[in-house]
Write a structure and sequence with these properties.
Layout lengths: L2 H6 L16 E14 L4 H6 L5 E2 L3 E9 L9 E12 L2 E11 L2 H11 L3 E3 L1 E7 L2 E8 L2 E9 L16 E8 L6 E9 L6 E8 L1 E5 L14 E14 L7 E7 L3
Parallel strand pairs: 5-6
Antiparallel strand pairs: 1-3, 1-14, 2-4, 3-4, 4-5, 7-8, 8-9, 9-13, 10-11, 11-15, 12-14
Length: 253
């Protein structure tokens, strides 16, 4: 079997796929703005209904990450999303409920390999006049706007919600009818391979806007605890970058 078949034959498309193999990379000086929030009662529980995850709390996190420094063969990207705490059996972690990337290969890496719910959107993350501002745009609409004032204090104590490891559903639909062909519960945790170089907390602001098939507005916070701005060296390694199959929820017939 040729190297082309070994390294690329498992991807869609097989010819000239977007995603390099294996999906391991370093991203020094990753910049991330995160805001800790509380969702309206019942919203998170509603979105957990079609999943095997158990409800933990109404707290959640929204973030924008500038990962343009990646040494990924195809380049860097922005990553942004909304994470909720969940439980599966004895495992507590974070379920990425909405996630966006500004490059095709970023979308392919998460969706095809591990079941992250990635879609396309554009983003910016910048510091100006003592303010860190993150903005996410899709179809001409600003669907996420995050803000932290440097030199300020968080509005409240940040909740100790467990957001790692990530627990995601890798789902393949039936190709010849309705239903699910296969579904696996994946656990992935890049945290042990990453190093935080700078961390600042402060007062946070969030604006979430719904558009078709992207109901972020339902999560408009009833409370904002505060925000964290981090600079870190992100690493997706063979040891701390690949996922582990926790359960085969639907097996192919």
């Amino acid at each position: 079997m040729s190297e082309f078949q070994v390294m690329q034959g498992r991807q869609i498309p097989i010819q000239a796929p977007e995603l390099p193999e294996p999906a391991i990379y370093n991203c020094p000086d990753t910049k991330t703005l995160s805001v800790f929030c509380q969702a309206p009662p019942g919203v998170i529980a509603k979105y957990l209904e079609p999943t095997p995850f158990e409800f933990v709390s109404d707290d959640f996190l929204v973030y924008v990450s500038d990962m343009r420094n990646c040494d990924f063969e195809v380049g860097g990207f922005f990553d942004m999303g909304l994470i909720i705490p969940v439980r599966y059996g004895d495992i507590f972690g974070g379920h990425v409920l909405f996630e966006y990337e500004d490059e095709d290969y970023g979308i392919c890496a998460g969706r095809e390999l591990w079941g992250y719910p990635k879609k396309y959107a554009s983003a910016t993350l910048e510091e100006k006049n003592g303010v860190i501002l993150g903005s996410v745009w899709k179809k001409g609409v600003e669907i996420m706007r995050l803000k932290m004032d440097l030199g300020s204090e968080p509005q409240a104590d940040l909740p100790p919600i467990k957001l790692r490891p990530h627990l995601q559903l890798h789902t393949v639909p039936q190709p010849d009818g309705l239903g699910i062909y296969s579904q696996r519960l994946m656990m992935r945790d890049t945290g042990p391979g990453c190093t935080i170089k700078q961390q600042t907390s402060g007062a946070g602001q969030v604006k979430l806007q719904s558009i078709r098939r992207n109901p972020l507005g339902e999560f408009t916070p009833t409370k904002i605890y505060g925000a964290i701005y981090e600079v870190s060296d992100f690493r997706s390694t063979l040891e701390h970058g690949l996922a582990k199959v926790i359960a085969e929820l639907v097996k192919p017939e």
